[in-house]
Automatic annotation (TrEMBL):
Cell compartments where the protein resides: Cell membrane
Spans traversing the lipid bilayer: 321-342
SMART domains reported in the protein's UniProt record: IG, IGc2, IGv
Gene for this chain: LOC106097098
Organism domain of life: Eukaryota
Ranges where the Ig-like domain occurs: 26-121, 123-211, 220-304
Keyword Transferase tagged: no
Signal peptide (UniProt feature, chain positions): 1-24
InterPro entries named in the record: Ig-like_dom, Ig-like_dom_sf, Ig-like_fold, Ig_sub, Ig_sub2, Ig_V-set, T-cell_Activation_Regulation
Gene Ontology CC: external side of plasma membrane
Matching Pfam families: V-set (PF07686)
Provenance organism: Oreochromis niloticus
CDD domains: IgV_HHLA2
Protein name: Ig-like domain-containing protein
Membrane topology: Single-pass type I membrane protein
Length: 352
């Protein structure tokens, strides 16, 4: 009895599975302005007929061994094709070029041969992936933002090391046309200066993070000082060095290896290493301030602020040296004078 029941369950399950497999909507998501393939398969056979429709709008048809575009809707004109050499093997996939937001929707792929016909539904969604996430410390708050995203993104904060209190900052989302912008800021009371802050912006298909490292302080002398851009020992691809959040010091292009030092900073930049470290020379106290390195990797942005404190070490030393030399000279002269006076007095006494 139990065995029979079990068999029935298995068969029902299997049929369900087959049904689901044959009819399930295979969702496709394509990037805006890119080319997109809507997949459709059928059992090969003679006299193929293919009709691609979008909610009853004719997209692309094929029969009598050629494309039939007489009924094609204007909005698809010149943007569709099917792979002719693959039709005989049961591939009716549609290539849709230069995808736009109006292309979103449910597509129907109808195929028929002398062996039978078949219908498949393919929902298409359009994506504009997260491109870049900006993070910055502005006054007493930390701001994270990203823009030009579709569909609606989410934004989350985390810290490194992990903080005991979670950050519940509700992001603000704006839509401009189709595209979304998102931003969030942490206020002074939410910020712990000892932590690194990570902001993640994501959609179903894309995800990028931006990390703001905690501020570090280094002390440099007038002669030379190196400031690190990243902990990584491997060469970095794109970075920008800024001074006091505004002046650009160095930019590195994607080409790798070549960097451009701004005119103004040329006397002060000695070198830039493969890992992005900046070596400064010829420093004076007006070069005291915050040096920011922005490192842009494939899926993340890293921001490191370093406060450079300048000690006027060498001139202090000089003053001290002059002081010591002067002091020694005074003592020596005094000693000589005293000695001479003493001798003279003794001599006079001896004479008397
Ligand atoms: C159908 O053909 C296209 C173009 O060659 C290809 O990209 C796609 O993977 C094919 N589909 C299958 C299921 O073979
Ligand atoms: C140091 O800076 C001065 C101008 O401020 C410049 O004339 C001089 O050439 C610089 N020294 C070096 C070693 O670049």
């Amino acid at each position: 009895m139990i065995v029979v029941k079990f068999r029935v369950v298995v068969v029902v399950f299997f049929l369900n599975f087959l049904w689901a497999f044959a009819n399930c909507d295979v969702a496709v998501s394509c990037d805006l302005k890119e080319n997109c393939i809507l997949p459709c398969q059928f059992e090969p056979g003679p006299e193929e007929v293919i009709h691609w429709m979008k909610e009853n709008i004719p997209v692309h048809s094929f029969y009598y061994n050629r494309d039939q575009l007489g009924n094609q809707d204007q909005r698809f004109k010149g943007r569709t094709s099917i792979f002719k050499d693959q039709i005989s093997s049961g591939n009716a996939s549609l290539l849709l070029k230069n995808v736009n937001f109006q292309d979103e929707g449910r597509y129907r792929c109808y195929t028929s041969t002398t062996r039978g016909n078949k219908e498949l539904f393919i929902p298409l969604t359009v994506d504009v992936p997260v491109q870049k996430v900006y993070i910055e410390q502005s006054g007493e708050s930390i701001i994270c933002r990203s823009e030009g995203i579709y569909p609606e993104p989410t934004l989350t904060w985390s810290t490194y090391p992990e903080s005991s209190s979670s950050i519940e900052s509700k992001p603000s989302v704006q839509q401009n046309g189709q595209l979304y912008s998102i931003s969030s800021s942490l206020t002074r009371s939410e910020i712990d200066a000892g932590l690194n802050y990570i902001c993640t912006v994501s959609t179903k298909k894309s995800r990028r993070t931006a990390t703001l490292f905690k501020l570090t302080t280094v002390t440099g002398s007038e002669s030379e000082r190196t400031i690190q851009c990243s902990d990584s020992k491997s060469p970095v691809t794109r970075f920008i060095w800024r001074f006091d959040h505004s002046q650009i010091i160095v930019t590195e292009s994607e080409a790798g290896g070549s960097y451009t030092v701004s005119e103004e900073w040329r006397p002060y930049v000695k070198s830039v290493s493969e890992t992005g470290s900046l070596t400064l020379q010829n420093l004076s106290s007006d070069k005291k301030g915050i040096y920011t390195c922005e490192l842009i990797n494939v899926d993340e942005t890293l921001i490191r602020n370093t406060f450079l404190q300048i000690t006027e070490e060498s001139s202090h030393t000089q003053t001290t040296v002059i002081g010591v030399v002067a002091g020694v000279a005074v003592v020596a002269v005094t000693a000589v004078v005293v000695l001479l006076v003493y001798r003279k007095v003794r001599h006079q006494r001896g004479v008397v």
